[in-house]
């Protein structure tokens, strides 16, 4: 689903302002490099820029979004806008040569032509060198938009010929909205926005049965630890350890634990919109009333200590047993 202009301005205010000013003043660079992590709206912004270049009735540089040009661009059917993406694992020289041949012709509907190269860092050396020749002799009516997550893997000579537009990672609140826009359930999006800032990873985790079960197990262990602390060790052996077997999985479980206690703090500071487990809000609100901020801080510190120990190759079973004891007010880590 393509993001709206309102969403793009909210996600990337600096990039949006720069591009709209360029469109309004008709000062368009011959080549742009959109660089930033996955899920930050780079491709959507490229579509918006293309609309601004071709729109029939722009207003102060803003494309209308409704004319036939804007609509064909957003649906990928405009004959003078070409999208290049990896063919398999890479973008090959033949793809760039075909693009050059296409751009040697007059535009079908206007004098202007635009091409978008997504994952530009995946060009082969031959493709990159071929593109470089294209960029060195830019046609006045041609606009190139290169999109990358790994700018350092691209030829410096290509980078030097592009206007760099940086796309910054979204805040957890905005990233949650982006996940929901991509079809992730709001409850799961609330948690995933704290676990990752990579859009594809977030979408994959939302339907990953292991992760869904991991969430349930951690929440249940928290509940048991609070209501029936003597059962916590049994739960640890029967459910937790069989599910969280690898080091990275244990680290994730500790992150999930930490987010539960952060939710209590969010509730105490009246930031309910920031909670990671909104489907357990009633229970968490009751718990937040029964714990002091000082005690909560101590418990969060305990979990962070456990994370440090897991990176020191401490036995995971011993680590988790000591963590549960510590959270109950028992002995510290040894």
From TrEMBL:
<dbReference type="Pfam" id="PF13177">
    <property type="entry name" value="DNA_pol3_delta2"/>
</dbReference>
<dbReference type="InterPro" id="IPR050238">
    <property type="entry name" value="DNA_Rep/Repair_Clamp_Loader"/>
</dbReference>
<feature type="domain" description="DNA polymerase III delta subunit C-terminal">
    <location>
        <begin position="240"/>
        <end position="327"/>
    </location>
</feature>
<dbReference type="InterPro" id="IPR004622">
    <property type="entry name" value="DNA_pol_HolB"/>
</dbReference>
<protein>
    <recommendedName>
        <fullName>DNA polymerase III subunit delta'</fullName>
        <ecNumber>2.7.7.7</ecNumber>
    </recommendedName>
</protein>
<keyword id="KW-0808">Transferase</keyword>
<dbReference type="GO" id="GO:0003887">
    <property type="term" value="F:DNA-directed DNA polymerase activity"/>
</dbReference>
<keyword id="KW-0239">DNA-directed DNA polymerase</keyword>
<dbReference type="InterPro" id="IPR015199">
    <property type="entry name" value="DNA_pol_III_delta_C"/>
</dbReference>
<keyword id="KW-0235">DNA replication</keyword>
<dbReference type="InterPro" id="IPR027417">
    <property type="entry name" value="P-loop_NTPase"/>
</dbReference>
<keyword id="KW-0548">Nucleotidyltransferase</keyword>
<dbReference type="Pfam" id="PF09115">
    <property type="entry name" value="DNApol3-delta_C"/>
</dbReference>
């Amino acid at each position: 689903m393509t993001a709206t202009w309102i969403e793009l301005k909210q996600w990337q205010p600096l990039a949006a302002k720069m591009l709209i000013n360029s469109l309004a003043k008709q000062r368009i660079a011959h080549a742009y490099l959109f660089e930033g992590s996955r899920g930050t709206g780079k491709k959507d912004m490229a579509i918006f820029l293309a609309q601004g270049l071709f729109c029939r009735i722009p207003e102060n540089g803003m494309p209308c979004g409704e004319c036939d040009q804007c609509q064909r661009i957003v649906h990928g059917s405009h004959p003078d806008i070409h999208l290049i993406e990896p063919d398999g694992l890479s973008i090959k020289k033949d793809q760039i040569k075909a693009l050059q041949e296409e751009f040697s012709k007059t535009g079908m509907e206007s004098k202007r032509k635009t091409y978008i190269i997504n994952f530009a860092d995946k060009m082969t050396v031959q493709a990159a060198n071929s593109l470089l020749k294209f960029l060195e002799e830019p046609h006045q009516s041609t606009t190139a938009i290169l999109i990358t997550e790994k700018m350092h893997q691209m030829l410096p000579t290509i980078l030097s010929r592009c206007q760099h537009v940086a796309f910054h990672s979204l805040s957890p609140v905005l990233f949650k909205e982006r996940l929901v826009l991509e079809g992730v359930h709001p409850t799961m999006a609330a948690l995933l926005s704290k676990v990752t800032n990579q859009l594809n990873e977030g979408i994959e985790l939302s339907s990953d049965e292991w992760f869904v079960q991991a969430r349930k197990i951690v929440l249940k262990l928290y509940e048991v630890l609070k209501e029936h602390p003597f059962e916590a060790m049994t739960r640890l052996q029967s459910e937790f350890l069989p599910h969280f077997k690898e080091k990275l999985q244990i680290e994730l479980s500790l992150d999930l634990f930490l987010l539960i206690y952060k939710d209590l703090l969010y509730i105490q500071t009246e930031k309910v919109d920031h909670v990671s487990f909104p489907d357990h809000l009633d229970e968490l609100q009751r718990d937040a009333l029964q714990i002091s901020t000082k005690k909560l801080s101590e418990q969060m510190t305990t979990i962070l200590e456990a994370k440090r120990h897991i990176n020191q190759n401490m036995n995971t079973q011993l680590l988790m047993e000591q963590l549960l004891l510590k959270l109950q007010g028992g002995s510290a880590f040894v």
